[in-house]
Design goal:
The protein has eleven helices and ten strands. The protein is α/β, with parallel strands linked by helices and about 325 residues long. Strands 1, 2, 3, 4, 5, 6, 7, 8, 9 and 10 form a ten-stranded mixed beta sheet that branches. The structure holds ligand PBG.
Length: about 325
Amino acid sequence: MRDSLQRLRRLRLNPRLRGLRRETRIVPGDLIMPIFVHDGISGSREIATLPGILQFDVHGAVGEIQRCQNLGIGGVLLFGIPSLRDWEGSGARAEEGVIQRVLQLARERGVQIPLIADTCHCEYTSDGHCGPLDAVGNVDNDATLGWLARTAVSQARAGADVIAPSAMVDGMVAAIRAALDGSGYENVPIVSYAAKYASAFYGPFRDASGSSGVFHGDRKNHQLDPANGREALLELAADTAEGADILMVKPALAYLDVLARARERSDLPLWAYNVSGEYAMVKAAARAGCGEERALRDEILISIKRAGADRIITYHAVEFAEGR
Ligand code: PBG
C-alpha cells in the first residue's frame, strides 16, 4: 500500500534533517596526531613523501604537542629519530634519548594532552629492523622482548602516559606489562598494535622515520599477511589475554572489515591507525585533481569510526582540527 511506503529519504531532504539523522561524527578529540622528533636537526624539516608533516627538534616537538593540545586533539603519538643508529638500537632506551628528552620537557612544561610513546627499534637500529635478527635473518622473537621491555620502562620513566609497542612479536604485551609492573609503572597502560599488517601503505613513514636507505628487507616474518582476517582476531585475543589496555588495527582503510569484527568481539577500547600511505594518497589525489581533499579525508575518517574505531591515529589530525 502506497501510504505505508517507507520514506527513508524524508530524513535526507535538507541539512537540518540530515544532521538529526547522522549516526557518526568526528571531533578533534577522536584523533591522535603522530609527531616525529629528530635528534640530528635544529628547527624543523619537511618530509617529501608526507606533505604537510614535519620532523621537529626536541623544542619544536614540544611546541607542536602544545599546539595539538590547544586544538583539542585527543593525544599525540611520539616517534624518535636518533642522530646515530647502532646494532642494538640503544637510542630507544637511552636516558638522554630523543623521546625521553621530549617527554621530560613536555612534563616540565605541564603539558596535559596524552603523550603516547611508540615502542619499537626500527628507527634506532643500524639495519632498520624492529629487533635483533636470528641466524636466518628473521627478527628474533624472544631477544626482541627484552629490548622492548627496557625501552618501555625508560619511556614510562621519562613521563609517557601510554606505551605503544608496534613490533608485532609474540609475547610483546606480556613482557612489557611485567617489566612496567616490576619497575613501579603498574598504572601505565599499553596500547598494543595488536593487528598490524605487513603493508605497502607504510611507504612515506620510512622517509619520516629516517629508515629509507637503511632498511632493505620486509617485515613479513612478524607482521600479518594482508590476506588474513581470522589471524588478526587471534592476535587481538592474544594481546587481550596478555593484558593490553587498548587494541589497535593498522592500517585502517584496507582493513575496515578487521576493525568491524574486532569491535564486535571486544569491549576494550579499539584504535585504528590511518597510516602514512593512506594520508599521502589523499594528498596526491587532491593534487592530481582526482577529488577534493577535505571531502576525501572526512569520508575516510568517518568510515574508520563507523567501522568501530574509538580513536584514530592520523596525520590529518592537525588540519582537521584547524578546520582546514
Ligand atoms: C614501525 C612502525 C611503522 C609504522 C609505525 N611504526 C612502520 C613499519 O612497521 O614498517 C608505520 C606508520 C605509518 O605508515 O604511518 N614500528
